[in-house]
Design goal:
There is one protein chain. With 379 residues, this protein is mainly beta. Helices cover 10% and strands 46% of the residues. It is built from 4 helices and 26 strands. A 6-stranded mixed β-sheet has the order 16-19-20-13-26-25. A 4-stranded mixed β-sheet has the order 4-11-10-7, with no helix packed on it. A hairpin with a 7-residue loop joins β10 and β11. The longest helix has 20 residues. This is FAT3 protein. Keywords: Calcium, Membrane, Repeat, Transmembrane, Transmembrane helix. It is found in: Membrane. Pfam families: Cadherin.
Length: 379
């Protein structure tokens, strides 16, 4: 307890008795009775041979239960194991290389490190750090090409994470880093540590080819990343049809079925090759294992096919479509639970362009807006 606040009252013996109060604050001053504590108690680390001087090997973590003026900043010292001055330890507890290590010269070092706090008198504690020198990278990283599809309302893309690069390396201790060519950083960013791709707001309609590379510190490998951006027209929402799938997650649909189903769907509903199929959104059905896919078909000469026409086409081709994935229902109007006939059901569809859903797999990522369907009985 760092302090107490007492209220003291004095009362006299008169009639009537009179009194007054005063507040007394008692601060408990700290003495430096706790030593610094390393977490964990001892460390192990590795460094690859031929890494440049100054390579970070390890970050020491130290805490102290005393108050701030008796704790940090800490003073770090390597007591033993660094007789040839192969290592340096900075004031923040980062252990770095001071030479270029060779696996053939030595494979292991054991350092005794001391941490001293700022109190008076100072308290100290010790830890041991085992550093292994391993062979440098002999394998190049491997990365899977990534294709990203973004669907957004006209000029209303808010930005966000749109996918993730999947890369591996057969060298066990390699740490992979990801970079993006500087001229593309005005539109996209890549997290250097985990490969997540971030799109900034306001992307225009079109195709973007990103110059991304992954490095293990020795080898650098380019990755093919292609981003397709499609902007929705308001007219599309008035001519949509929903296909409801059974027993499939959004990620499985995107990674396993979307390309094949899109191709089969085009053959089923397009009257002319120049017509355009637009997948507007995919979204899980709440409380079930079903998945809704919202789409519209644009006529080459202008306008969109009416939902009734598309549903007729889909019904005729349903057997072919189910060769790709099982279909639960084909919906134009969703009057489920409403006691009215089909012709008396009115549906409205709304898109929340600022609530994006990202379904990402190793090879393909699909980013689309959340949609809401409202239906009412017109009986």
């Amino acid at each position: 307890i760092s302090g107490y606040s007492l209220v003291i009252q004095a009362r006299d013996s008169g009639t009537p008795p009179l009194s007054s109060s005063v507040t007394v604050n008692v601060d408990i001053s700290d003495v430096n009775d706790n030593s610094p504590v390393f977490t964990p108690a001892n460390y192990t680390a590795v460094i690859q041979e031929n890494k440049p001087v100054g390579t970070s090997i390890l970050q020491l973590v130290v805490t102290d239960k005393d108050s701030f003026h008796n704790g940090p900043p800490f003073t770090f010292t390597i007591l033993t194991g660094n007789e040839e001055e192969e290592f340096t330890l900075d004031p923040h507890g980062v252990l770095r290389s001071a030479v270029i290590f060779k696996h053939m010269v030595s494979t292991e070092y054991v350092l005794c490190v001391q941490a001293k706090d700022s109190g008076k008198p100072q308290q100290v504690s010790h830890t041991y750090v085992q550093v292994r020198v391993i062979e440098e990278s002999i394998h190049k990283p491997t990365a899977i090409p990534l294709e990203i599809f973004i669907v957004t309302m006209e000029d209303d893309f808010p930005g966000g994470v749109i996918g993730k690069i999947h890369a591996t390396d057969q060298d066990v201790y390699d740490v992979l880093t990801y970079t993006l060519k500087s001229e593309q950083k005005s539109l996209f960013k890549v997290n250097s540590h985990d490969g997540k791709i971030i799109a900034l707001g306001g992307l225009d309609n079109g195709k973007y080819v990103l110059n991304v590379s992954v490095s293990d510190g020795r080898f650098q490998v380019p990755i093919d990343v292609v981003v397709h951006v499609e902007q929705l027209l308001q007219e599309m929402l008035q001519n949509t049809v929903t296909i409801r799938f059974e027993n499939v997650s959004p990620e499985d649909f995107v990674g396993l079925h979307m390309h094949g189903f899109r191709r089969t769907l085009r053959n089923a509903v397009l009257s002319q090759k120049q017509d355009s199929l637009h997948i507007i959104s995919i979204q899980p059905v709440a409380g079930s294992n079903q998945l809704d896919m919202l789409f519209a078909v644009q006529i080459h000469s202008g306008g969109f096919y009416k939902p009734a026409y598309l549903i007729q086409k889909l019904t005729n081709a349903r057997r072919h479509l189910e060769n790709v994935i099982r279909i639960s229902a084909i919906l134009e109007k969703n009057c489920s639970g409403l006691d009215c006939q089909e012709q008396h059901c009115e549906q409205s569809l709304s898109i929340d362009s600022h609530s994006l859903m990202t379904y990402s797999t190793a090879r393909i990522s699909f980013v689309c807006p959340r949609f809401y369907r409202n239906v009412r009985c017109m009986c």
